[in-house]
Structures are given as C-alpha cells and as structure tokens.
Amino acid sequence: QHDIDLAAADQPAATTDSHRMEVVANIANLNDAQKSVSLGGEGVGLLRSEFLFLDRATAPDEDEQAEVYSSIVKALDGRPIIIRTLDVGGDKPLDYMPMPAEENPFLGERGIRIGLNRPSILKTQVRAILRAGKGSTSKVRIMFPMIATLEELRAAKEVVRQEALDLGVSNYEVGIMVEVPSTAVMAEQFAQEADFFSVGSNDLTQYTLAMDRGHPKLAAQVDGLHPSVLRLIQLTVEGAHKAGKWVGVCGGIASDPQAVPLLIGLGIDELSVSVPALPAIKGQIRELSLTECQNLAQQAVQASTAAEVRTISRGR
Ligand code: PEP
Ligand code: MG
C-alpha cells in the first residue's frame, strides 16, 4: 500500500479527463523543501522568506540570503520555485525594524509596503533571489506580498529591473500575491504587468469579509469558501487568462479537499499546498473530472453562504 502511494506521489496530477494541475508546496525552509520533493511536490509555490528574518538581532545580509535561497533551489533539483519577498509588519513585527505603533496593523505598513518604505531591505532581498536564480536549472520567480495597487507593483518591479540590470540577469519572472480585494477586482489590469498570480486566500478572505483571520470568536465564520471570495477568485482567473497569465492558490484553501474541486472548476492552474497534504491533494485530483468541477464551481459562485458552498462540494 505504502509503496504504491509513493510511486503515485511522484506522478503528475491530472483529472480523469486529462486536465493537468500543477501541485507544488508552501515551504518555509530547506528541510521543508527536501520533504516536499520526497512527497511528490512539483516545485514550490510559496517560500515564506520570513523565516530568515525572525528571531535574530539584525537582518540577514545579501550573501547570507543568497546562500540560503541557493541551497533550497538546489534541493528542488530543477523544479520551479516562487520566493516571496519579506511579508512582515502588521501583527508580525521585527525587533531590528522599529515600526511606529499603528491603530490598524492589518491595514497599515504590511507586506510590500514595508519593502517600498525601506528600499534597502527589498533591494537586498531581490538581489539575493536573483543571484540564487542565476546559473540555476530551476525557474526562480519573485513574488510580492499584499499588492493592493498598480503603483505598488510598478515601484517594486522597478527595484527588480534595476538590480537585475546591475547583476546581468535577464530571465526572471515577477508575480504578485492576490490577497487584497482591489487586486482581484483589477486582475485584468494587473495581468498586463505581472507574470503570474498566486491567490493568498487567507488574507483575501480576511479583507473581503472584514474579519480578522486570527480572531478566536470569528474563526468559524472566516471561511475562504464564502461565495464572495470565490467570485473574486473567478475574476482573478478571468483577468489573468485573458492576458495569457497563470494563477495559483497558495492560501489554506488549496489544501482543503472541499475547496479543491471548486478551484479546479474556476480555472486555477496551480495549487500550492502544505507539504504533508501533497500526496492526498494529488490523489484527489486524479479522481475528479474537469467538467464535474466546472459544474460545481458554477453552482458555488451562485450560492449565498459559505455553508451552502460546502454542502454543494460535499454532495458531488
Ligand atoms: C495568504 O494570505 O493566504 C498567504 C498565503 O499568505 P500568508 O498566510 O503568509 O499571509
Ligand atoms: Mg497573506
């Protein structure tokens, strides 16, 4: 039984009607990268680079970052990787990056806003990522967190352009997290200027429903399968595909068996899941048909509540 599962784990995942889905992993360090390969991960859809910056007295310099990213890229042995730039701020402060207290940290200096306000941090990290990609057989992609406006994307891309020019690197890709409703709504415009999208459903749900994702009293209601969130994902896919760009999901719903058929049906191209979930999600995809998933997704976006969506998904 175990041998059979492991053999299947290494195979790509396609539906019964041959619709191929890319299944990659969310990781935080080298150990996760190695595990993801052994469990059949086809690459990394989200490296949360925060791990390198937490629990220390100073920020890691360019060389240290380049070395860590390179070791992770090597462990993936040619598989693609998306490295997300530092996503701290709000509720995740760093001792060596003093930030004024904010009334609404989740709506304040978070994600890419930190990188744009402190250019040396973003610039250093971008250089380290570009260096890890240089001379590697893997496709190393850069992704910005919490993008809410095109101005933010343009400013962040300009940093990459300058550093790539300086390092003599030309084959890079720049994508964005879609985790703010404005970005999902404007996906068609963003798709003109980003190489790929990855839906951060944890934050997208929090910002769409205006419910703190970590609030104990709201936990039961903050559901990424709420029809409003699914409609935003639908808009994102439509906008991206019109421009020939692809869309992944790296938020928690990508690892939720009740969400997987709906995401496939909505046209999502890549699922980035927690490392332990890799074999099960690939197994589930092999038992679904694209037509059935498209039917379910159509019903789900017409539903009125998250509970209804879950009933629809369970009833298939
Ligand atoms: C998300 O918001 O869905 C996401 C993947 O990013 P994080 O959970 O790290 O905020
Ligand atoms: Mg997020």
TrEMBL record:
It comes from the Bacteria. Transmembrane segments: none annotated. It is found in: Cytoplasm. Coiled coil: none annotated. Belongs to the PEP-utilizing enzyme family. This is phosphoenolpyruvate--protein phosphotransferase. It comes from Echinimonas agarilytica.
